[in-house]
Every structure is written in C-alpha cells, then in structure tokens.
Write a structure and sequence with these properties.
Blueprint lengths: L1 H4 L3 E5 L10 H4 L6 E5 L10 E5 L29 H20 L3 E5 L23 H12 L2 E3 H5 L26 E6 L6 E6 L11 E5 L2
Antiparallel strand pairs: 1-3, 2-3, 4-6, 5-6, 7-8
Helix pairs in contact: 3-4
C-alpha cells in the first residue's frame, strides 16, 4: 500500500520497536531513503514513531522540550479531568507555536481526541471517557484557535461516519463504530496549498487506518 500511495513523507506511529529492530522491508522501502526513528527511552517496545522521507529534511529534532506524558486512550470512566493530558496539550501547543513562527506546520498523527460529536459514533455514551472529555476537546479547540486547521474537517465539514480508529472488540470496524482520532492539522496559511485530506478506511492492518494529506508546495 505504501508503494502504491508513494508518499513524499511517511509518518508512522506506535512502531513499538527500537531503531535496531526496524524490519528490513521497512528500511528498504523504495523512494524513502531518509528515515528517522524514536522510541520511549529505555522502553523500545513501547509507543514509538518513525518518519520516512523522499527528500532529506533540512533539520530533524526529537521531543518537544518538555516531558509531560499524555494520557492513554483507555475505554474507562474517569471522575476527574486528565491532568497529564492537560499539561501535555499546553506544552505541545507552545512547541507548535514556536515551530509555526519559523515556517508553516503540518502536524499529523493520533491525537487521542475526537473533537466534535460528529467525530465518533456514540458521543453521548463517551462523554466521560478518555478521548472525548470536555477538557480534551477544549484543548483541541485551543489548538485550532492558535492558527491551526483540522484539514479534513475544513474540507468536509458535514462528513459523518468518517472514522480512523475502531476497537477490535465486537466487530466495530465492520459496523463502522469508530472514532476520528487521527488528524492532519496545518497552519492556517497553508490552506491555499491544501489539495485534499483523505481517510484511507479500507486499508487494514491496524485498529487505526492511514490518513493522507495532499499539499501543493
């Protein structure tokens, strides 16, 4: 699928392996020779991200200069606001503002929040669950208010059933009982270059599906 899609930049998440354990077939992906990998310090099997690019980046940095840990998206009721997530959101937004002051930003990945009721199948039943608490949704609203745009919702404001995550339980994906947790967020001044933002929901292999941002730059 990656070869058919032929991206200029491929971003991977939840790689769950250290640099030395990246599979050789990923290392050898044609057209993506510049590869950068990061995983949790001392925990190579936990989380992890990768960035593969056709053209060598001008600069690559790791981390956001802070060390807050975002709350994981577990399906359980929580009685209090997820404070680690709130701290992360604030630190991450400041990081994005610093980047945006240098050049326009494309932020992509699983942001672990469904922003609006249209972004998940059962909003009423999930109001107290991680990923749809008022505090998390407000954090995303603050991000958008700081000069950033949810590219998919900008182009498809009324699209329903557009989800990127489905639990493995209960045949959720076959019934499209899902959440939109994965985003391509762009600096507002990139909107003139935004051609499309796609959810590749037919691509299997994970409880998430890929998303694609198309920009003319």
């Amino acid at each position: 699928w990656v070869q058919e899609e032929a991206p200029d930049v491929l971003c991977l998440q939840e790689t769950k392996c250290g640099v030395s354990a990246v599979p050789p077939e990923i290392r050898a992906l044609p057209g993506l020779p510049h590869q950068f990998w990061a995983s949790a310090e001392g925990r190579p099997g936990y989380s992890g991200v990768g960035l593969l690019a056709k053209t060598e980046p001008l600069n690559v940095t790791y981390g956001i200069g802070e060390n807050p840990k975002p709350a994981r998206n577990h399906p359980k009721i929580i009685p209090e606001p997820p404070q680690p997530r709130m701290r992360f959101d604030a630190a991450f937004l400041e990081f994005l503002r610093r980047l945006d002051a240098q050049k326009p930003v494309l932020l992509c990945g699983d942001l672990n929040v469904a922003h609006a009721e249209i972004d998940l199948c059962h909003p009423r039943a999930n109001r107290a669950n991680p990923g749809f608490t008022p505090q998390e949704r407000e954090g995303f609203t603050r991000l958008l208010g700081a000069g950033f745009v949810d590219s998919f919702r900008h182009l498809y404001p009324e699209a329903r059933g557009a989800f990127t995550f489905w639990t493995y339980l209960g045949g959720a994906r076959a019934r499209n009982v899902g959440w939109r947790l994965d985003y391509a967020v762009v600096s507002r001044r990139l909107l003139g270059s935004l051609c499309d933002s796609k959810i590749r929901s037919t691509v299997a292999g994970s409880d998430h599906c890929p998303i694609t941002a198309l920009l003319a730059v």
